[in-house]
Write a structure and sequence with these properties.
This protein is α+β, with helices and mostly antiparallel strands. The chain has 4 helices and 4 strands, in the order H-E-E-H-H-E-E-H. The chain has a 4-stranded antiparallel sheet with strand order 2-1-4-3. Helix 1 crosses helix 4. The longest helix has 18 residues. The chain starts with 11 loop residues before the first helix and ends with a helix. The relative contact order is 0.24. The model has no long low-confidence stretch (mean pLDDT 91).
């Protein structure tokens, strides 16, 4: 007989903490961003776009979150895998999915289990990664 331990899912309250923390980090850096939070099933829990953020940042933040969730890895760690000599080179075009291999997407774990992901778009990729990482650290 095996025992399964239940892990609390990512809640809308958790999502609001993530959005607030990411936006606070971006505000401190003087960067306007969009932030997307997805649950473990890839469903939208929260989305915010700063008034002055470039419009495409909404799409990029969502795709970064989706990619981090599907591959259970920060998108910053995946960038090299889709280069012409990388093992995932054809993955973005082979799948009809909204994957985006640009830094700024980070999976969210609780008790070692994947419960969702956050994506940030609008700044330089390294900045977006930093804002997303800061948000996940604050939730922990």
């Amino acid at each position: 007989m095996s025992t399964t331990t239940s892990v609390a899912p990512l809640t809308t309250q958790d999502a609001e903490i993530l959005v607030t923390a990411a936006r606070r980090a971006a505000d401190t850096a003087g960067v306007t961003v969009s932030v997307t939070v997805l649950d473990a099933g890839g469903h939208l829990l929260a989305f915010r776009r700063d008034d002055r953020a470039v419009l495409i940042s909404g799409e990029t933040s969502t795709r970064k979150a989706y990619t981090a969730l599907q591959l259970n890895a920060p998108t910053a760690d995946l960038v090299g895998l889709v280069k012409p000599d990388g093992p995932f080179h054809t993955l973005p075009t082979a799948l009809d999915k909204p994957l985006l291999f640009i830094a700024g997407g980070v999976p969210v774990h609780r008790d070692g289990r994947l419960i969702g992901a956050i994506g940030v778009g609008g700044g330089a990729p390294e900045q977006d990664h930093g804002f997303a990482t800061a948000a996940v650290e604050e939730l922990s």
